[in-house]
Amino acid sequence: MRIYLMTDLEGVAGVQNFELWTRPGCLFYLLARQLLTQEVNAAVEGFFAGGADSILVADGHGPGAVDVADLDPRVEYMRGWPKSWPLGLEEGGYDFLAFVGQHAKSRTPQSNMTHTQGTGYLELSINGTAIGEFGQLSMCASQLGVRTIFASGEKALAEEAQALVPGIETVWVKRGTRPGRGDECTEEQYRQRNGSAVHLHPQRARELIREGAQRAIGRAASREEEFGIIPLQPPFRRVYVQRANKKRPTRMYDIAEHADDICALMAMPHDNLRVVESEEQLRDLLVD
Fold first, then answer.
1. Coil, helix or strand for 214?
2. Per the CB 3.0–4.6 Å rule, which of 100, 116, 190, 266 could disulfide with 185?
3. For residue 275, what are the contacts with CB-CB under 8 A and spacing of at least 6?
4. Degrees, nearest 5: CA angle 217-86-253
5. Is the peptide bond before 235 cis (omega within 30 degrees of 0)?
C-alpha cells in the first residue's frame, strides 16, 4: 500500500496567520515548519502502523515548509513537481492520497487563513462544484484511480473534504471563528481577514492525526468500496474568478473546458482573463 501524502502549512495547529508564520524571514516560520513536520510524522506513524508499505511526502507549501532533517526517515520526500497537475501523482503507482496541514477553500466561513492557491483567488469551480486545493488534487486522484482516504487540518477543511469524499477519515486541529465569505475583499484585504481561530494543543493534534491515519488506512485496506469522490460527468468546465488587487482594481474571470480530462483541465493556464462587468455577472459565476 503506497501513499502520496500532500502537505501544507496553513492548516496546522498553532500556525496563526500569514504575516508571522508562513514565509522565510517571518518571526515564527521556523516554528511553523517544526509544527507541520511533527504533524506529518504523526500521520506517517499511523499509516505505517496500519499497514502502509511506502509513503511519499509532498511539500506543497509555496516556499516549502517540511523540515527534512526532522522528517521520519522511512518516507520519501518530494519538493517541486515534474510538471503541472496532477503534481507527480500520476508517476508513482500510488494506491491512496492523504493530506496534512490543509486549509479550506476560498470563501469558506469560519475558516482560518482560508484561500485557494493564493488569496487572489475568489473562487475556482468545476462543473458547478467549488473546490480548493484539497478538491483539485482529489479530483485528479480519482481520475487516476487513487482513493483519497485522509485529511487533517482546520475544521472547515474537514467539512469540505467530507462533502466531496463521503466517508473520508478527517481530523481537525483548529477552527476558524470569523463568519462570512469575504467576497467584498480585495486580495490584500482577504489575506488579513481570517486570522482568528481556536487551536488544539499541538501534542493533542498529533495524537488525533496518528489515530486517524491508522484508522483511514485500515478502512481503505479492508473496504475497497469506500472513499469514493462524488463523481463529475464530462465534459468538464472550469470557472476561475480573481479578486481585485492593488495593481488591478477590477475582478477578473476565466472559463476553460476539456472534453474528458480533469487533470489536463487543472493544468490549463488562466490565459483568457476578462473583466467581471457587474455584481449580477459575478453572482452568476460563483457557486452559492
1. helix
2. 190
3. 250, 251, 252
4. 125
5. yes
Which among 145, 163, 144, 165 is positioned nearest to 263, based on CA atoms? 144
Which position has the grid cell 488534487?
137
- Tell me the pLDDT tens digit for each residue of 85-100: 999 999 879 999 999 9
Task: Give CA–CA dist 138/285, Å, rounded.
Answer: 23
- Look at residue 41 and give its three-state secondary structure: helix
Q: How far apart are CA 254 and CA 127, in angstroms?
A: 14
Q: What pLDDT band is residue 176 in, cutting at 50, 70 and 90?
A: very high
| Partners of 258 in beta bridges | 236
Q: Is the domain defined by 2-120+130-222 classed in CATH 2.60.40.10?
A: no
Nine-digit cell at 241? 474568478
Strand pairing class (121-126; 236-242) = antiparallel
| End-to-end C-alpha distance for the chain, whole angstroms | 38
List % helix, strand, coil for the chain (3-state, nearest 5).
30, 25, 45
Query: Grid cell 480519482 — which residue?
Result: 142
- d(CA 268, CA 131) in angstroms, rounded, equals 16
User: What is residue 23's DSSP assignment?
Assistant: S
Q: What distance in Å separates the CA atoms of residue 61 and residue 6, rounded to the nearest whole number?
A: 9
The band of 279, judged by pLDDT with boundaries at 50, 70 and 90, is very high
Write the CA distances from 156 to 74, 108, 192, 260, 280, integer angstroms. Answer: 31, 7, 18, 30, 28
Burial class (CB in 10 A: 0-12, 13-18, 19+), 87: buried
Report pTM. Answer: 0.96
C-alpha cell at 137: 488534487
Q: Can you give the residue ranges of every domain in the chain?
A: 2-120+130-222, 236-285
Residue 227 reports pLDDT greater than 90: no
* Backbone φ/ψ region at 237: left (φ over 0), alpha (ψ -120 to 50), beta: beta
d(CA 131, CA 287): 10
